[in-house]
Design goal:
This protein has about 475 residues and is mainly beta. The protein has 2 domains: about 300 residues, Methylamine Dehydrogenase, Chain H; about 80 residues, Macroglobulin (MG2) domain (Immunoglobulin-like, Sandwich). The protein is built from no helices and 40 strands. Strand 7 and strand 8 form a beta hairpin.
Length: about 475
């Protein structure tokens, strides 16, 4: 932990319940700095560190509040279970199909699939594509879209085969389909487009604003889209558009979501004058399809809060994911919020998804995906392995009929883990794992890519031990 001195040499620290105190380096007694910071209502379930920096130019204190993740903060009956992908890229979007299979979009590494709630992950054949979004229709047809050259792809067989659906000359950020079977696409460079034949052909709507990040169909086929932080809507299948202001005012709109009851949730934030780059994060709720909104502050103490998604989970409550402060929960419709981060090792949460059966997953930086579980499920979990173990990759060989192989390993204790692949000369060709991991059973995916055919060695290092096995690549 680093401490910062003000120009006169005083060390400044926030003491819980007393406000700001300071002490000279010579050991002089602590003294109260009355009025230096506003009173803070710190919840009993949360701990803060207040780092104070002295601004010589303005002669005033500027402060940032950080979450101190030293204890479990979520209510005891729930915990986030880590199910990381075998890579370190950001998980930018998640979607469940009707059978609770989860599809994950990763930054720069395409689409991944888990058929067992995160216990294992498989790369799709679109792993090398630059993908922005995934949409799964009620009939489990999968649509993905992305950057220039990717366009839109469609699969009707759980992602085994893909068909290109055009828009390769657009950056597509979001997809949705109305009850009247009109597909909408939000494009970064050309606003909202629509298709009447599930993406086989497309036409532009009059909404042509750039930086269009999101499209969502609400009740009665009302379409919403976000461009440059402003919310717009169409009541006539995209023919005309109006800006949604009302109670939202000039807040920046970062996300919009809906639940099975048609309630809309918008993640908003308002810039505060204390610093032009800081904001207060809110969740705006609408029960009348966007006609009126009620805004609720996530936390009066936290600045620079941006809401990335909002999900309504039956029996759990509203969950708001944020880009810097993890997950927050509300059990009263968004009026009050509490931190909900029991089990999280990171706090930059980028997306969430809820399945029809109530499963919820969140995607974070570093390739992390978490599933929400009740604490009672831990009773049924198998005990941690008793020894370090490395399994034979499967399938083996890899590269002819299978483009990737799974390597499973057991960790009796948590700690730093390295899993790498080498050629027979000892040259490192691929690093699969290089991180701190919890005890238990883990897996990684090896994709040979353009490696030449031949014999390779993969090596697991953990707890001061090393285990080596061989695998074959065929062409």
């Amino acid at each position: 932990m680093k401490w910062y001195n003000e120009s006169g040499g005083s060390l400044c620290i926030l003491v819980r319940g007393t406000g700001l105190s300071s002490q000279r380096p010579n050991g002089a007694p602590w003294r109260r700095r009355a009025g230096a910071v506003p009173a803070l209502d710190l919840r009993s379930t949360m701990r803060y560190i207040l780092v104070i920096c002295y601004d010589l130019g303005n002669r005033m204190y500027r402060y940032v509040i950080f979450l101190l993740l030293l204890s479990s903060i979520a209510p005891a009956q729930y915990r986030w279970r880590l199910s990381p992908l075998p890579l370190f890229n950001e998980v930018t979007e998640l979607a469940f199909d009707s059978e609770d299979n989860l599809y994950a979009i990763t930054y720069g590494r395409g689409l991944w699939e888990s058929l067992d709630l995160g216990k294992s992950w498989n790369p799709s054949t679109l792993i090398e594509r630059e993908i922005n979004t995934v949409y799964i229709s009620p009939s489990d047809n999968i649509f993905i879209a992305g950057y220039y050259g990717t366009g839109i792809y469609f699969s009707s067989d759980d992602g085994n085969m893909w068909v290109q659906r055009g828009l390769t000359d657009h950056i597509v950020n979001s997809l949705d389909i109305s009850d009247s079977q009109i597909m909408y696409a939000a494009a970064d460079d050309s606003g909202v487009l629509r298709s009447f034949d599930f993406g086989a052909s497309w036409e532009k709507t009059p909404f042509r604003k750039e930086n269009d990040k999101c499209v969502l169909v609400g009740q009665n086929n009302k379409v919403f889209t976000i461009a440059d932080g402003k919310l717009y809507c169409s009541n006539d299948d995209g023919v005309s558009w109006q800006r949604v202001i009302g109670q939202l005012g000039d807040d920046y709109i970062g996300s919009i979501d809906t639940d099975s009851d048609g309630v809309l949730y918008a993640g908003t934030y308002e810039y505060v004058p204390r610093d032009s780059g800081w904001s207060k994060g809110r969740v705006a709720v609408s029960h009348d399809n966007g006609e009126t909104w009620t805004k609720h502050l996530i936390s009066p103490q936290l600045l620079d809060v941006s809401v990335s998604s909002v999900a309504n989970v039956e029996g759990v409550g509203l969950l708001a994911t944020t880009y810097a402060y993890g997950v927050w929960r509300s059990v009263d419709g968004g009026v009050t919020w509490e931190p909900f981060i029991n089990g999280l090792r990171r706090t930059r949460v980028l997306c969430s998804a809820v399945s029809a059966s109530g499963e919820i997953a969140i995607g974070l930086s570093g390739g992390d995906v978490y599933f929400l579980e009740s604490e009672e499920t831990d009773i049924d979990n198998p005990p941690a392995p008793t020894s370090l173990a490395l399994s034979q990759s499967y399938p083996n060989p890899v590269g002819l009929h299978a483009q990737s192989a799974v390597i499973e390993y057991d960790l009796p204790r948590g700690g730093y883990v390295s899993l790498s692949v080498y050629d027979l000369s000892g040259r490192l060709v691929q690093t699969l794992v290089d991180a701190h991991q919890s005890p238990g059973k883990h897996s990684a995916v090896f994709t040979p890519g353009h490696l030449p055919a031949g014999l390779y060695i993969y090596r697991l290092s953990a707890e001061g031990q090393t285990i080596t096995k061989k695998l074959s690549v065929v062409r």
